[in-house]
Each structure stands twice: as structure tokens, then as C-alpha cells.
């Protein structure tokens, strides 16, 4: 496949996300081309993702909801061991729908805890805060608009309460294997002994079920993937023709990776004007946009072991589609 040509570099307006600029500049010059799913979540992307989570083919959200609802009392017992107050720190809180199951139960039990939701989407965070304040006016809330990695800095603050980091929704599946290890290592460095991490892992299952979740009949995943090109058109003054790209998804049951691609439906050149870039595409050329990994119990235990944690809780739904897993430092 042909190389992209960088024309004279231009100064990029300062209200554009510099991380998106870097991603487009480097990702569209690689072979194969790639763009990270991190950039899916502008206002429209977050809206489509909310629809995906409610869609019949995307089983993940329903399964995790069932896990948390069934096991909320056991989870509270683990979080409250030795009766210390605890601090729930949620990375990527989104609309907080699943976390509300836990918060509702913790409030009913008059548990001594605070809740710090962290998200890169201001819209999602604001909606969540308004909602939580209405439902539980006494809940101690410390919301933060940030990405996961900067948010991890929050954890180093001194406090005598137990930290419970929530990383739900199979967000861990969107990391490459080495990124997942680095992520838990960073968490481990910042936590104190006895602190906990609760992660939602999507489990390996019949490949057809996974394949359908990312090729849903309503075309939501397709719209979600293509929206990345719309975002680049808007933010970087590009001219991707959305009708000339298609969504393609694979699931490989040998390594548990679902992968999303955008496929060029013809030979074409796209201008990214804000970067002075012209990006040539051949017919059938792909942009890799997302990995959604599915795990086995052995892999999860190994991940804990490799990063210095002990796996102290394993909770699944009735079909064993999804697991919420407690790691203790
Ligand atoms: C956010 N993340 C866990 C979702 C997933 O399943 O990987 C994003 C998504 N991509 C396509 N559909 C949903």
C-alpha cells in the first residue's frame, strides 16, 4: 500500500485535541493504517455508544448489569472488610448506569464511602453528576474530567480510606495486551496494600455471539466506527467520504480478539487540511480502529499474578458471559 505524503506542515488551531492530531499524523502514515478507538467518544460517538449498550445484540452491558445486581452484597462485604470507609474511584464512568446499582445498595446499607467518577466526556460526567445528586443528595461526590492515565495520579493522595478502583464495562478489552499489563502495574504502584480494583472482563464464549455483538443488526457499531471519520472531518478539516468506507469486524477465537476496521471501498485520496496531509487509499485498504479482547479465567488470574495483585473475588452472570473480578494489592 502507498505511503501518505505530508505536505508543508501547518500550525493547527489550539482548540483541537493535540492527541488526535498526533494520532492522525502517525496512524494514517503507518502500514497498515490505524486510528485508536480512544477517539470514538465525541458527543455523537458517546450518544451512539449509549445506544449500543441498550441494543439486543450487544450482550455485554446487560450481562454486567446482572453480575453487579446479583452480587452487590458480596461486593460490599469485600469493600468494607475491617470497617474502614472506602473511596470508589471509577475510571471511565460514562453514564454510570451500572455503578448506580452498587451506589443504591451501598446507600441503603448506609456504607461509609465517597464516589469519584472520572471520564473523558464532559457531557457524560455532567449528566451523571446531576442525576446522582438528584437521586442521592447526601452522596459524597468528587467528579473529575480526565483520561484514565492522568486520573491515576489522583490515587497517590494520602488518605486512610481504602481505595476501590472501578474499571467496568470491559474497557480493559480495548487495551493491547502489553497496555493492560502496564495499566495494572501503574495501578499497583499508586495503590496501598489492601486497596482493591474491580474490573469488568468480557469472557470468551461461542464466537458467533461475540461476532454478532460487533456486527449488530441495527448497524450501530458500523455508525460508531464511521463516526471517527466524521470527527476527523470536523476537527481536522478533512474530507473523508463516509459512503466510500465500510465497517468490517473480525473475531478470532484463538486469541480472543475482536477487531474493527474501516475499509476503503475504492482507490481514493483524502485531504486532512489542518495537517496539510494527503492520505492515499487503495481499494480494500483498511484502517484498524479497535481491539475488544475477550478473556479466559486463566488469563485474568495470570494478569493479576504478573502485576502483583491477588485475585480475591470472581463474580459472573448466569450464562458466564461476563465476569467482574476483584484484585487486591
Ligand atoms: C467501550 N468498549 C468496552 C466497547 C467494546 O465492546 O469494546 C466499545 C465498543 N466497540 C464496539 N461496540 C462497542
Q: Care to give the gist of this entry?
A:
The protein is 37% helix and 25% strand. With 329 residues, the protein is an alpha/beta fold.
Keywords:
eight-stranded mixed β-sheet; alpha/beta; disordered N terminus; 10 helices; binds N,N-dimethyl-L-histidine; four-stranded mixed β-sheet; globular; 329 residues
Write structural notes for this entry.
This protein is of the alpha/beta class. Helix content is 37%, strand content 25%. It has ten helices and 15 strands. The strands form three sheets. Strands 3, 4, 5, 6, 7, 8, 14 and 15 form an eight-stranded mixed β-sheet that branches. A four-stranded mixed β-sheet has the order 2-13-10-9. A three-stranded antiparallel β-sheet has the order 1-12-11, covered by helices on one side. A hairpin with a 4-residue loop joins strand 11 and strand 12. Mean pLDDT is 92; it is low at 1-9. The structure holds N,N-dimethyl-L-histidine (AVI). Residues 52, 60, 169-171, 173-174, 214, 221, 224, 290, 292 line the site of N,N-dimethyl-L-histidine.
